[in-house]
Amino acid sequence: MQCLCMPGYAGAQCQRCAPGFYGNPMVIGSTCQPCHCHDNTDPNMLFSDCDGLTGECHSCMHNTAGTHCEICGPGFYGDAVTARNCTSKPN
């Protein structure tokens, strides 16, 4: 029997988070939360690329880094979240 899961949940008994979400619904009080990678991951992927348990973003793009692709990577400066303009530091 397959359950009809709420958004963000997956599995035959809604026992895990769906792609693009993270958390551990098997732990009392825990819920599946959307990944927050600030649109700095591959736009061709159907869902944000984040760790299913921790929410840590993988494969940050646009010269960004950080747990949620929220900062400019080493050697870059700018605004990684709003302006999304991480630019190479001049030599």
UniProtKB/TrEMBL annotation:
Domain EGF-like: from-to ranges: 1-15
Bridged cysteine pairs (disulfide): C5-C14, C60-C69, C72-C86
InterPro entries: EGF, Laminin/Netrin_ECM, LE_dom
Keywords for the protein's UniProt record, in alphabetical order: Basement membrane, Disulfide bond, EGF-like domain, Extracellular matrix, Glycoprotein, Laminin EGF-like domain, Repeat, Secreted, Signal
GO molecular function: extracellular matrix structural constituent
Pfam family, one: EGF_laminin
Subcellular location: Secreted, Extracellular space, Extracellular matrix, Basement membrane
BP term (GO), one: animal organ morphogenesis
Main location: secreted
GO CC entries: basement membrane; extracellular region
Key word Signal present: yes
Domain named Laminin EGF-like: residues: 1-34, 35-88
Name by which UniProt lists this protein: Laminin EGF-like domain-containing protein
